[in-house]
Design brief:
Blueprint lengths: L6 E6 L2 E6 L2 H14 L3 E2 L7 E2 L13 E4 L5 E6 L4 H14 L16 H7 L1 H6 L4 E5 L5 E8 L4 H18 L7 E4 L12 H6 L4 E2 L4 E2 L2 H15 L6 E7 L16 E5 L16 H20 L4 E2 L16 H13 L4 E6 L3 H16 L5 H13 L3 H17 L10 H4 L2 H17 L3 H29 L3 H21 L6 H20 L6 E5 L3 E7 L20 E4 L16 E10 L7 E10 L1 E6 L2 E6 L8 E4 L9 E10 L9 E11 L12 E3 L5 E3 L1
Parallel strand pairs: 6-15, 9-12, 12-13, 13-14, 14-15
Antiparallel strand pairs: 1-2, 1-5, 3-4, 7-8, 10-11, 16-25, 17-18, 17-19, 19-24, 20-23, 20-25, 21-22, 21-24, 26-27
Length: 693
């Protein structure tokens, strides 16, 4: 092979010879020799190292193995900046065929528009028209970040000067072959200015719930490259193909020097590309194939930049075995030559498919099932077949469920207690079969711990369904303690974003729900899960009086609220807009001085009426931020009361969610209980980072 990383391993006359085109190639050959001898590395660190004791090496006389990488770029990294942990990960990647460091001067993925704004802060403050035109939560429009007005000629000059600054800082010659990131900031959306609209495609992206800005980004990059082609003739520019710029351009043909970085955060995390059980992944395959056709035609480099975990949920059982078993070979066949994977500190959940990804990155022609067999044999010894059945059962259940709602919202729809019991039986059998303490520990780590999290989550959801909030809060505290104990056993088993998203988000909800239902306060009426529903796409329902008691809602259709998702109920395409819920409930007469309506969480703005009287509004904040409305004067105790909710989805907080997400109830007590402590809301940005509100 012409690859500088290729190696050859030969056994001849009892002598093992390993050669490579470079020191790296020799290293890959040595690790291949060790793996052939029975060694393996199922995760970073000592617990992942498998070194069998054998009297003889199993390599036969005449063995002749020659191998070269399928992808020239196979790099894995953590989101955290801990140098020691990243070094540990790099060593693990190297042993499985990955690279220690990124390819020099090739850095196509990044959020740069914010950097350009920061570098020109004074100019933006002096003239806010340089910022993107955005619509605010109250419907007004203004100029603000995090994006700029990409069609403005002054932005073009700032961008060129930004590139010059990078070349000066690195002391590069102008003809150096370099790929730099030049994509939009994380979050935000395309400017709604007339100029941006005229430059774009006019399409509405079905996944991000925003106007598709892919054409606008391509036009901007085309102009920057045209402006710099003589000054920097070997410059390439890259951008993340995700969020509101995740499509394929229909108006502007990308310059051959544009490098799209395929980061698939907008799409289902439970199925792989082209999976016919998925709506979003079926759509996504069409996008990827169009980019591949363009690359074949004019030579654009393509980068696949996946995530090793379920974004915003890195805590419960999750599998990308069959996803990556198909996707990685497919991307290679489509001409993708760069594979850059973002790992997370959640190896107890993600080890099997993370191992598979790096092995396939070296050789995408392998049968993924055989590679997975290697993982199971190395991890579990005599319990390999039983644990293989466990992991594949998770994978199959996840993929065939047809659920696409993101994060943790769909887990109670994918799994049930009967399935958990079946998996517990498999894990118990595997533990009995295992022959060493290390194998038993891996069964606990890769099986029992994630399944235990799922079991507690399902129990937690069951307590919410029964409005037993004090017990739910206690269970969640136990789950927090157990997760922290797992992290103390192994620092690689503390998923940074998944744990924060689950625990921190529900912590505020639990505190407020318990406050409003215990002690001096008691629930007097539960809002049903199934409610009469009306879609109000254009937001005209309030003007039409959808909240008035005499409106005929007899034949309104019903939807579930907190027990299901919009995706599961056929509303996945309804990404932004309003929905109305109406229900009539009986409230008993009592001598209570004060009554409140508790709304557990909505996606992501709510207004409420009781008997046609407005009692308040809340949001948009986090989709698990609880609200309490004073309904003392609006309620009619001892009678039937009409409660009406208007929920407006103003942003894509999560895939496939919408409407009312958590239980609601009417409660009473001596006075307004006030805000619960420690309930600080936050949102998760598209790349997985947390922004407190």
């Amino acid at each position: 092979s012409a690859s500088p990383e290729a190696y050859r391993l030969v056994v001849q006359k009892g002598v093992v010879r390993i050669g490579g085109h470079s020191p790296a190639g020799v290293a890959y050959g040595v690790y291949r020799f060790l793996r052939e001898a029975g060694c393996d590395w199922v995760m970073p660190g000592d617990e992942g190292e498998v070194v069998p004791e054998k009297p003889n090496l199993p390599l036969a006389e005449g063995t002749d193995i020659e191998s070269a990488p399928s992808f020239s770029d196979r790099y894995g990294w953590y989101s955290c900046r801990d140098k020691r942990l990243n070094a540990m990960l790099s060593r693990w990647c190297l042993r499985l065929g990955g690279q220690l460091e990124r390819i020099p001067d090739f850095d196509p993925g990044g959020h740069v528009w914010g950097n350009i704004i920061k570098a020109n802060k004074a100019k933006f403050e002096a003239d806010p028209t340089l910022y993107a035109l955005v619509r605010n939560k109250d419907g007004s429009i203004s100029r603000s970040g995090p994006q700029f007005e990409d069609t403005d000629p002054r932005i073009l000059e700032m961008s060129v000067e930004y590139i010059r600054g990078i070349f000066r800082k690195n002391k590069w010659a102008n003809d150096r072959a370099v790929c730099l990131p030049m994509g939009p900031s994380d979050g935000g959306a395309l400017s709604i200015s007339p100029e941006a609209a005229l430059a774009g495609s006019g399409k509405f992206d079905p996944e991000s719930a925003r106007p598709d800005g892919t054409d606008n980004v391509i036009l901007y990059l085309n102009r920057v490259l045209e402006r710099t082609k003589d000054e920097f003739p070997n410059l390439k520019l890259g951008f993340f193909l995700y969020s509101w710029h995740a499509g394929y351009p229909v108006r502007h043909t990308p310059d051959p020097r544009i490098v799209p970085v395929i980061a698939d955060i907008n799409f289902s995390r439970f199925q792989g590309i082209g999976d016919e059980t998925s709506k979003t992944r079926y759509h996504y395959e069409g996008i990827v194939r169009k980019w591949a056709d363009l690359a074949a035609k004019q030579g654009n480099e393509l980068v696949y930049r996946p995530y090793s975990w379920n974004l915003a949920e890195g805590w419960m059982p999750y599998s990308k075995l069959s996803i990556w078993g198909r996707e990685i070979p497919l991307f290679r066949s489509l001409g993708v030559d760069h594979f850059r994977i973002n790992y997370t500190l959640g190896w107890n959940v993600n080890a099997p498919h993370s191992y598979l990804a790096m092995r396939l990155a070296w050789d995408a022609t392998q049968d993924w099932r055989k590679v997975f067999d290697d993982f199971c044999r190395a991890s579990y010894g005599r319990a390999a077949e039983t644990m293989k059945a466990y992991h594949l059962a998770i994978d199959t259940r996840q993929r065939e469920s047809g659920q696409e709602a993101g994060a943790f919202w769909a887990f109670s729809l994918i799994y049930d207690e009967a399935f958990v019991a079946e998996m517990e039986a498999l894990l118990a059998r595997a533990t009995a079969e295992a022959g060493s303490a290390a194998e038993k520990r891996r069964i606990e780590m890769f099986g029992c711990e994630p399944l235990g999290h799922l079991k507690r989550y399902l129990a937690f959801r069951g307590l919410l369904a029964d409005f037993r909030f004090a017990e739910a809060a206690a269970l969640w505290n136990t789950a927090v303690d157990e997760s922290e104990a797992e992290g103390r056993k192994n620092e690689l088993n503390v998923p940074r974003w998944g744990r924060l998203a689950v625990f921190k988000g529900f912590k505020g909800f639990c505190a407020r729900a318990m406050q409003c239902s215990t002690g001096d306060y008691r629930i007097v009426a539960r809002i049903p899960d199934r409610l009469k529903t009306a879609i109000d796409r254009d937001g005209n329902g309030e003007e039409l009086g959808f909240f008035r008691p005499r409106i005929n809602d007899r034949d309104w259709f019903e939807t579930k609220t907190w027990s299901s998702t919009w995706d599961a109920q056929g509303l996945a395409a309804y990404r932004t807009g309003s929905v109305w819920y109406r229900t009539r409930i009986d409230v008993p007469a009592s001598a209570a001085a004060w009554r409140g309506l508790f709304v557990g969480g909505v996606d992501n703005f709510v207004k409420v009426w009781v008997n046609g009287v407005s009692v308040g509004e809340g949001g948009p904040v986090s989709h698990r931020t609880p609200y309490v409305f004073d309904v003392t004067s609006a309620l009619k105790p001892g009678e039937s009361n009409l409660v009406t909710f208007l929920v407006e989805r103003r942003g894509n907080y999560e895939i496939g969610t919408g409407g009312i997400l958590l239980p609601c109830f009417i409660f009473e007590g001596p006075k307004d209980p006030g805000p619960a402590p420690d309930a600080r809301p936050f949102e998760i940005l598209p790349g997985g980072s947390i922004r407190y509100l």
